[in-house]
Amino acid sequence: MVKDAPIGVFDSGVGGLSVLAEIQRLLPHESLLYVADGGHIPYGEKTPEFILERSRRVAGFFREQGAKAFVIACNTATVAAVADLRRDYPDWPLVGMEPAVKPAAAATRSGVVGVLATTGTLQSAKFAALLDRFATDVRVITQPCPGLVELIETGDLDSPALRLLLQRYVEPLIAAGCDTIILGCTHYPFLKPLLARMLPPTVILIDTGAAVARQLQRLLGERELLAGGTPQATRFWTSGDTEHLRNILPTLWTSSGVVRSFDG
Ligand code: DGL
Fold it and tell me: Going by C-beta distance under 8 Å and a sequence separation of 6 or more, which residues neighbour residue 108?
């Protein structure tokens, strides 16, 4: 692997752009590739076998592109695929993501933590293990959020329909006394401005994008693979509608970009 090779970042859709932004902020010299599996979104209600198969195709594509590292910028795909992908590519720096239970358990003052995530993430054995490990001293209220990802995919971050749905999902958490809410899906950080208006000001929101960028920096640093020069423009692919992704990129990403079709 060479230092100026790109880093592959993957999500079921546009959610991983929230992670891509953190990576670009921390590692501005890195060239980035982004694949959205928009033709198969949402992952939240799909089987782990299906998501693993899709993740393997994306991993193979990033290898073909010469990517020096792979970031699964999706909590749902991480629980379904990270262990197998690590076995498939033992020497490839690979970063997955999981809901930030440990920092949330440390941050809560009420002792009640809420988790907003997909059904797939919340039902996984990996998430149960995370709670066993880090949440023994706090109460955790989990809330699956079907429908939210689909709205965010359209570029909707603040419509009446979205506000209604989100209100339904956060209300039980607030009623239960949560003062710390984990955004356990990479799509949800885009709703932070809306959540900040909706929630009591004492509630803290925690997501893992920045931690993932730091972990990536650590892994590349250990292998002396951090880039130092001028990066190439970020390249985007989607298995869904390329025109649609191109149109919403300026809203969810820092700029417009070239979007190609991914038919893996
Ligand atoms: N963005 C993904 C996550 O972090 C999942 C969205 C989906 O349901 O496809 O879990």
Answer: 138, 178, 179, 180
